[in-house]
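Let us work through a complete example step by step.
Step 1: write down the sequence.
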Amino acid sequence: MASLKELKGRINSVKSTQKITKAKQMVAAAKLRKAQAAAEAARPYSGRLASVMASIAGKVAGSDSAPKLLAGNGKDQVHLLVVANSDKGLCGAFNSNIVKAAKAKALSLKAEGKTVLFYLVGKKGRAVLRREFPKDIAAMFDTSDVREPGFEEASSVAAELMAMYDEGKFDVAHLFYAKFRSALVQEPTEQQIIPVPAPKAEAAASAGASVEYEPGEAEILAELLPRYLRTQLFGALLENAASEQGASMTAMDNATRNAGELINKLTIQYNRSRQAAITTELIEIIAGAEAL
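Step 2: predict the structure and record it as tokens.
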């Protein structure tokens, strides 16, 4: 049984930890408001850009003039999994859920006889994937030197992915990130980004069948598709940022509550031990008095 000194030390230690988790919870809550606003503000732009692209792509999809980013290279053997994680921990299962989704996709593709490569964004999650797929890590993009990954980082990732695609290093690229739903829900999401999925026929037909483009649709798409790719990556980084702060706030709130419960249990144990020690001491004093 722990001594009174040990129990008091544990209580003080847990109280110190509780102060840290409470402070981190408040910081995450403040950052969440900004990150959530940024993620929600980017969604309409991304959606409108996708609509415009659907209108144009519907006219050239399947034709010889379709850009490579839309038409693909005719192969489906090498798949690149772009896994976007954060650089910091203390955010619950946020990073592990993204990695789990990527691992499931990788195992499914390997079972079909496909070759799988990984492109890792962010530091968290690297250790697991490098341990389980040591020969499949194609590249890593470091975001630890920036405070908040943004459009510049998304553009750099997009440029590197397009260069790898042009060099024939992969045939299909899938993006994994966490879509922000609420502070309690961050949904691991998979999205094919290269080649850009062709729009559904009915969506393309309703998006702008009566519109004529100048210059030709293929020339416009050649300019629009890289921008669309950068936008998708930027949106994923924004969704990840909001999801990270939501997960961190929830995790730190749970940690604070657990610390409070542990403090209560240790305090009860301390008081009982102290009362037992006092009772034992009184019994010894009484026994000594009676012996006199």
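Step 3: interpret the result. Residues 54 and 203 are 7 Å apart (CA to CA).
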